[in-house]
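Hi again,

Forgot to attach this to my earlier email, sorry! This is the prediction with adenosine monophosphate bound. I've pasted everything inline since the attachment limit keeps bouncing my files.
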Amino acid sequence: MPSRVALRQANPSTMSAHRWHLALMVLLVAHAHCPAGLTATTLTGPTMGTRWTVKFTDQLPPERSVASLRQAIVHRLDEINTQMSTYLESSEVTKFNAAARGKWFGVSRSTAEVVTRALEIGATTGGAFDITVGPLVRLWNFGTDGGVAVAKNITLPDERAITSALAQVGQQRLLVQTNPPALKKAVCGLEVDLSAIAKGFATDQVGQLLQEEGLNHFLVEIGGEVVARGQPASDRLWQIAIESPPEAKRRLHKVVPLENSALATSGDYRNFFVHEGKHYSHIIDPQTGRPVGHKLATVSVLHKSCLYADAFATGLLVMGDHKGVAWATKNNIAALFLVRSGDRIQEQVTPAWKQATQAPLKKRDSSQ
Ligand code: AMP
Ligand code: MG
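Structure tokens for the complex follow:
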């Protein structure tokens, strides 16, 4: 049965420059299908401005109740939020963003780990993925104070404002150390924005928690990023639906089987505004300082880690279809690109995607 799709749209008729905000995430992705007749336990709740969902088909160990498992999940997610959110004033990242330059700022091991991975991914993607884009995100009205409320008064930033924000952006200006875990900024005004990677990390973390609880057959989803382990039944794999971009005729693009893998998607229409007929997405190209504006509508990435899938999906969306497909193919990344072509949507996939989605079904051990 399809899971819920969160969608909030502003009414375009009431706006001169209208902004459509797709309530933090999920226009595409993630309907988890459970075979008919199968008993799955489903838990869900709010987190990171979206929802988390866990489905599992194993029996819980006798000492664990569903309520206490739920509490453990909520606790872990709250912890990650207080470390990495840019929406919480008291989070580590928000405090670091307000801190002075040139001094080490102590953070949790998790934050230092996510920043370390993000800087590695930033380097491999040639700067397409960059967690220091915060000043540009705000400049283009996608910051924490942005939203439908400001849509009527959008004025686009001028060249000078973009150049001045770019002076505070660039991951080479951000330093991280893990022992003790700390961050340092080399320029005043540098910020960390983990929005394109923290959900993937959190999804991995919930998956790890479930495995530590002895669960082997589950699905975790946070705002469209998914981790699947095992199988829902002996003759089935978990099935994840990837939705088409809104302009496509079909709502469902395709269903992807997942086994012991993660899937993340980045879309240029999840959070955007339209100004004088032009579409401005919340994904910023750190080289130009401007929202990406090409034909690539969404990128989905399959990876063993949801953190990497999340970050690569964003980085590939910045690269665009030509460069992105070539880069993902060269780096053996399993990626699916949905590209606008007139009034149609064209699919492009990398060889690694083809291989990963054609894996033969292995029988689940019925004793598990
Ligand atoms: P996602 O939906 O995972 O692609 O993440 C998008 C969010 O990441 C945006 O709302 C921004 O806060 C941030 N972001 C935008 N552009 C970039 C970029 N080039 N690299 C890293 N994060 C970005
Ligand atoms: Mg991402």
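The radius of gyration is 20 Å. Residues 129-131, 133, 137, 142, 193, 195-196, 266, 282-284, 286, 310, 314, 318 surround adenosine monophosphate (ligand 1) (CB under 6 Å).

That should be everything now.

G.
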